[in-house]
Design goal:
The structure is a homodimer. By secondary structure, chain A is mostly helical. Chain A is built from 10 helices and 2 strands.
Amino acid sequence: MTANDRTRRSFSTAEAVAILQRTPATLDALLRGLPETWTNGNEGETTWSPFDVVGHLIHGERTDWIPRARIIVEHGETKDFEKFDRFAQLAVSKGRSLAALLDEFASLRRQNLQTLNALNLTDADLDRRGRHPELGVVTLRQLLSTWVAHDLDHIVQISRVLASQYSDEVGPWRAYLRIISGQQG
Amino acid sequence: MTANDRTRRSFSTAEAVAILQRTPATLDALLRGLPETWTNGNEGETTWSPFDVVGHLIHGERTDWIPRARIIVEHGETKDFEKFDRFAQLAVSKGRSLAALLDEFASLRRQNLQTLNALNLTDADLDRRGRHPELGVVTLRQLLSTWVAHDLDHIVQISRVLASQYSDEVGPWRAYLRIISGQQG
């Protein structure tokens, strides 16, 4: 990769943190105070609403990213990661308000970024390897890169779920809206 | 559509405005102060960076949504919309900072929502028809629904462009990240 390549970046902890620290405020700006008709909408059947996604992100802060980073740093490949429960947010979120979930996500993320900073990771640390129960050997660099991409993936999901509520209402413009036509471009 | 249908909404001006008024703060939270290595990254060749997308949204505020709504209200189907220039942001943005573009987008959006509010649209108004130069007859309801979906489409695009910078760095997790694998789910 050259310095001028605008399509790919090498991982840098500082650049990753720049995204990770912005996600809670981004979701707050997009979702807090929005009518529940929007935040509880989904894409049918067991698909997730924006409310569900915030619960999933909270569960990730508690059990996925930093706990797995600690396993790599402390145990390397000798200890598998815990499996991540993709349905835990149903319990996390039950009976709670979206505002309370957004607050909790912001608080957990802040703490986790403090923990990450305290780990003081070197390039050699980022090459350390752990063992994912399904994917096999992964590096700490890959885990932290995935944390970033995972945030952005769920911002995509929330935006898509919101827009899809208007799939009929946009009429002939459907053809121009990749978010509704389902084409990625 | 029933009140319990969580997958589709009928258009409501108040609900549309609830999204439209949040977009500037959402983009601000996501992008302001982010290193330029992120905000200038694209997906190769002539694809857009987050910086380019904000310029495009500014051009839409100036020439697309409210100007077209006015044409429908004042001229109906007797006057075609102006064609929208999808490359105008190159001129809009040249030599400016992302912070300045975010400020301008927020200011234009605020003004345009004031204008929308002043139009005091009734359900009958929302059924009024205009003529799109390529799509043919469209209604004001469809135009305003598309304004909402278009915002969300570009939040998706910005998030995807950011995440795609780490396409290599996530390693085997690529398989789980729709934002990188390109699958919509």
